[in-house]
Amino acid sequence: MFGRRHFRPLAVIMGLIGSCVGQQSPAKVTAAGVTITEPGVYQLASLFQHSDIVAVVKVISGDAESYDSAVYKGEVIKSYKGKADGEIIYFGPYVGERLGWEYVLFLRDMTEPITPKPNSVSYGKIHYSEVFDEGYSSMEISYECVFDGRETRDQCDYGVRVCTDYIKLPKSARTFPPEGQDAPFGCRWVRKTSFLSLLEGLHNPK
Questions:
Q1: What percentage of residues in the chain have a pLDDT greater than 90?
Q2: I need a labelling partner for 154 at 20 to 30 A (CA). Which of 8, 27, 182, 190 fits?
Q3: How large is the C-alpha radius of gyration of the chain?
Q4: How far is CA 49 from CA 1, 52, 82, 151, 202, in A?
Q5: Distances (CA, A) of 2 to 32, 63, 69
Q6: How far is CA 42 from the centre of its chain?
């Protein structure tokens, strides 16, 4: 199993500087001959629009050895755009997705198939979709005890980890901790049922 992804600290700091709430083109800064690209900032609706695939995906397996970047094999549990429930997809390129776990993925289809390295044991030459926006378009689903409620059973629920410094949610969406309070890497939890309701509204607008 791959280790947890560590976001680039400098990219995170740079992202906090940005004040744009709509879609923002990544900025580039050159220092000592090195170009650093910060993540963009998207409204959730804009992220949905700019994605070819939006789905809850269970990670079945992963390969960080046979290709030039990490490739995961996943099963679409619930599709909101671009695929059907039950389909198998391949995606990457960031390490850290946990095998057997579910993620809400916003993906872009690559125009060319990805080819394995010679003499490697791999998935073969496959169609591949890309997690973009410095990895923030991949959102972990996990059982957490961070929500509101008087009783412990109300405080614990399945949630979606959304980095709201980069993915802007509707004002009606409740996050934990709330906006305005510090959160690691600017990432907060949203109850899974609430977040998937937002996706359903984007999939089937009234």
A1: 76
A2: 182
A3: 17
A4: 32, 8, 11, 38, 9
A5: 32, 9, 13
A6: 12
pLDDT at 12: 35
Check if the beta carbon of residue 54 is closer than 8 Å to that of residue 106.
Answer: yes
Q: Which residue has the tokens 């995961």?
A: 72
Full-model pTM:
0.82
Tell me the pLDDT band of 206, cut-offs 50, 70 and 90: confident
Which amino acid does the sequence have at 105?
Answer: L
**Pair 159, 191: CB distance under 8 Å:** yes
Domains of the chain: 9-43 (no CATH), 45-138 (2.40.50), 142-203 (no CATH)
